[in-house]
Design brief:
seven-stranded mixed sheet; globular
Length: 194
């Protein structure tokens, strides 16, 4: 599923709407990432940078947050935002649609919120994600349930079991984890044997 995200200011009204906190529960999501100072975390499909302030606070001054998005206007929007918010340990970067552009074994966590359903060839992408993780790293996918009235049209949504299967096909041990999000589910995937 591909969408036009080039109008970052327009999308910011939705992505950064204060009412999002009630259903997205960003503090719960970030807590489940189990971040520690000094870690490198990737927010894949970061959009307007909704999660970055929280992520940056958790990894601290010695850590890094890489906010990746394939849409150049979103990246420019985030760069302005991070400068305005003085987020020194957060960097907005453009990435291709089929890769993060990151080196093997370079990250501790990959957060993918409301984005997994936009990725083509997800099994191949999962293999790429497995390659960039450090041995104790993991990927967290947060996406919309089939039942919610939020998010993309129902026919574009992906059930948690399918996400688990796609991540497993990429060499990751994946499982849906307990959470209290009203409209979404969370899948965590670790390197096999990690």
């Amino acid at each position: 599923m591909h969408h036009d995200f080039s109008d970052a200011a327009k999308w910011s009204k939705e992505f950064d709407d204060p009412r999002r906190d009630a259903w997205q529960r960003p503090d719960e999501v970030v807590t489940l990432l189990a971040l520690e100072p000094g870690m490198t975390v990737v927010d894949l499909g970061a959009g307007t940078g909704y999660f970055e302030q929280r992520l940056g606070a958790r990894v601290g001054a010695s850590g890094r947050v890489l906010a990746l998005d394939p849409e150049p206007n979103m990246v420019a929007f985030m760069r302005d935002r991070f400068e305005r918010e003085h987020l020194a340990n957060v960097e907005a970067r453009s990435c291709p649609l089929d890769s993060t552009g990151l080196a093997p074994g370079s990250v501790d966590r990959v957060l993918i919120v409301d984005t997994w359903h936009h990725i083509d060839n997800r099994q191949k992408y999962a293999k790429h994600l497995a390659s960039i993780l450090r041995p104790s790293g993991f990927v967290m996918v947060v996406d919309f349930t089939l039942e919610t009235d939020k998010g993309p049209p129902r026919h574009h949504r992906i059930a948690p079991a399918q996400v688990v299967s796609e991540l497993a096909a990429g060499g990751l041990d994946a499982t849906a984890v307990p959470e209290t999000l009203p409209d979404q589910y969370i899948v965590i995937a670790r390197k096999a044997g990690g």
